[in-house]
Design a protein that fits this description.
Strand order of the largest sheet: 4-10-9-8-5-6-7-11
Structural class: alpha+beta
Distance between the termini: 61 Å
Oligomer: single chain
Radius of gyration: 39 Å
Number of helices: 14
């Protein structure tokens, strides 16, 4: 039973024997099995009646000691040393040394605690190895630093792998065209809930697509940190794994994509994103506590300002919001008055400055993907 604590059968037998003795020397643990058997037999033959019973008892004790002290492959001394190392017995400084058993409750509890610590350390190691196995292997061959994903299905698989492999953050340049008819990315919502941060820079044309504003509203409300520029240089998704993917040919969302592993090329793509991030305008649609006309912009004001700062014309804004062009102009004039702006550019600047378009550092997490 005690083998779960690391004791062999012979060590356990010796320990149980020592429990019956106040103290014992190595020599007192009995002769080898052959001698013990002979002594036991001689004792049994040495007399009859009471003397025969005494001889049988002596032979049985000797046999038990021999069994505890002479299992194949190890010596009594080695087993005593093992029990001493485990704290189950103590050696008294006598000549010859005598051994006493430590109280089983305390001694065995200490062995159990030590085994628990070992098991806990083993569990931590298993968790580390599991996490390491989940990550793609480090790429060392220069020929493997860039791969090609052929076709939409392969691109989608790589995009999912890139997102799931992120440690803390996903970044993306987002622009039409998209692999799917709608640039939904349910995995992003899942990752946002897990605490993965998404940052996306959108081409203003993305806001001009049917449902584009509603789509951005959904994702920024979930935690994506979004900004907009007039034109993004390339479609790009970056994970801090590090891993990046971008179309092999310009705007060819449905074609082949390059898969870039950690390298100088990856570092360059990362720097490109950060350069654009610094100059892009923040997007934030959802209202927070206390937002409302009395505090600043209404939700419609935010939508109007977002489309305005993205560079859209009055016609496009009217189409998105379902207004007439004159209604757009009237609302713009009212916003410019409230923002004390003399131009639409100044209105956009003042809106960002006043927090009407929320600075993205207030958002909890977010971005886009090859499927957007």
């Amino acid at each position: 039973m005690l083998n779960v604590l690391g004791l062999t059968v012979a060590e356990q037998a010796l320990y149980e024997l020592l429990l019956t003795r106040p103290s014992v020397t190595e020599a007192e643990l009995g002769p080898p099995p052959e001698a013990a058997g002979a002594e036991g037999g001689a004792g049994a033959e040495a007399g009859t009646g009471a003397s025969a019973g005494a001889g049988t008892e002596a032979g049985t004790a000797a046999g038990a000691e021999a069994a505890a002290g002479a299992a194949p492959g190890t010596s009594v001394r080695a087993r005593l040393r093992r029990l001493e190392q485990l704290g189950l017995v103590a050696r008294l400084p006598e000549d010859p040394p005598r051994y006493v058993v430590a109280p089983p409750g305390d001694a065995l509890d200490e062995v159990l605690f030590a085994r628990d610590r070992e098991l806990a350390a083993a569990r931590r190691r298993v968790a580390e190895l599991t996490a390491r196995a989940a990550r793609p292997p480090t790429v060392t061959d220069p020929l493997d630093l860039v791969e090609i994903a052929h076709g939409p299905e392969a691109v989608t698989r790589w995009h999912e792998r890139l997102q799931r492999g992120a440690r803390k953050e996903i970044r993306a340049f987002d622009s039409p065209p998209y692999i799917n008819d709608h640039h939904a990315n349910p995995l992003e919502l899942e990752q946002l809930r897990r605490g993965i941060r998404y940052r996306a820079i959108y081409d203003r044309r993305a806001l001009g697509l049917p449902g584009g504003v509603a789509f951005l509203d959904d994702f920024t409300s979930a935690g994506e940190i979004a900004r907009v520029v007039t034109d993004v240089p390339i479609k790009l998704v970056l994970s801090d794994e590090p891993l990046a993917m971008l179309p092999l040919r310009e705007a060819a969302a449905r074609g082949d994509w390059l898969i870039v592993h950690g390298s100088v090329l990856y570092d360059g793509l990362s720097a490109l994103f950060e350069t654009y991030w610094e100059r892009a305008l923040p997007l934030r649609f959802a209202t927070g506590p206390g937002d409302g006309p009395q505090d600043g912009p209404s939700p419609l004001d935010r939508a109007l300002l977002t489309l305005l700062t993205a560079g859209h014309t009055e016609d496009v804004i009217a189409e998105h919001l379902g207004w007439h062009k004159q209604t757009v102009r009237r609302h713009l004039a009212d916003l410019m008055r409230r923002l004390d702006a003399t131009s639409r550019f100044q209105a956009g600047y003042q809106a960002v400055r006043r927090g009407w378009l929320r600075p993205d550092h207030e958002a909890p997490g977010g971005a886009t993907d090859a499927g957007h």
